[in-house]
Amino acid sequence: MKKKRKPFRGRVQDPHKINQYIVADPVRLVGDNVEQGIVDLASALALAEEQELDLVEVSPKANPPVCKVIDYRKFLYDQKKKAKELKSTQVKTDIKEIRFGPNTDEHDVNFKLKHAEKFIDEGHKVRAYVFFRGRSIVFKERGELLLLQFAEKLQEVAKLEQMPKMEGKKMIIVLAPK
């Protein structure tokens, strides 16, 4: 004896209208084992119940709205699975920051250069900036020169995405992996 499946009742937070919650009449009916076309809502609901499936409004803005005869729980499961798969294939790029002062010494620049190379090899973008504090804002040219030299030393592994630009008390460049 086959166990009779209860039709899905739907909840307030469901993204789709299901079964008796559909108000549009007539509807365009689609799905497997269903004669596709425009039918009235009562016969669409009867057809879904006959197959022990749910009537789900998949495209409410169409004229007439599109309803599909499917197992709603399985439909939700497949949607979650697709969303999870899309999320896992996305590449996340972090932006790592490297800070200089306008009077940073050559040795310190080389030290930070190694860190920047490591970040770029890992696939991260690097935002290098010179922070001007107090009266050091007078040395803008020195900061710009420092950043351009930094970018030039990294040109084999990274490309300059943004030229030196002042934002408040910072002069910023952005480097991205090649």
Question: Key features?
Answer:
178 residues; alpha+beta; Ubiquitin-like (UB roll); Translation Initiation Factor IF3; 2 domains; 4-stranded mixed sheet; 4 helices; 9 strands; 33% helix; rod-shaped
In short, what is this structure?
This protein has 178 residues and is α+β, with helices and mostly antiparallel strands. Helix content is 33%, strand content 29%.
Tally of helical segments: 4
What is the averaged pLDDT score? 86
- Strand-and-helix sequence, N→C? EEEHEEHEHEHEE
Ends apart, CA distance between termini? 64 Å
Cα Rg: 30 Å
Low-confidence stretches: none
Q: What coarse outline follows from CA principal-axis ratios? A: rod-shaped
Record the strand order, biggest sheet.
1-4-5-2-3
CATH topology of the largest domain: Translation Initiation Factor IF3
What is the CATH superfamily classification of the largest domain? Translation initiation factor 3 (IF-3), C-terminal domain
Number of strands: 9
- Portion of residues in beta strands equals 25-35%
Class inferred from helices and paired strands: alpha+beta
Largest sheet, described in full?
A: 5 strands, mixed
CATH architecture of the largest domain: 2-Layer Sandwich
